[in-house]
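Researcher: I'd like a structural prediction for the single chain below. Treat it as a standalone chain; there are no partners to consider.
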Amino acid sequence: MKVEVVIWLIVFYFSFSACNFSNQKSKEPKTVWDTLEVTASAYNSLSWQTGAGGANITAWGDTLKTGLKAIAVSRDLIEKGLDHNTPVKIEGFDGVFLVKDKMHYRWKNKIDIYMDEDVEKARKFGRRKLKIYYEVPYSSISENKKSKNNSE
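Model: Treating it as a single chain, here is the predicted structure.
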């Protein structure tokens, strides 16, 4: 009788240990790209624009370098998921930018695209509304959609 129970327990243990329950979750994407329309302008790493002695240092402490695809975001966008180092695709631009800087509290729904020290390029860009696509954890999108559906 004891031998039968031990055999049954061994079979039971190995049958469940062979199952990969975590594999079911891996089918869900870990991140998704959310969309937002923002006002965009451009900035340079020049002290007269940034108001800082170290014009190449961002509010998060990153160093801006020539060729870096970086943006600054208004602080209300941080609450929407555009936090430090969030990947961002910008309508009309190639490649992926990273959130490296944050703007003064007075700005809302706005990004600044880093354009090195090319003041003319920044002036030519001007200010415009455009769409951005930013990477967020999948769970935050599904939670936001659930809460929107429940409120409707």
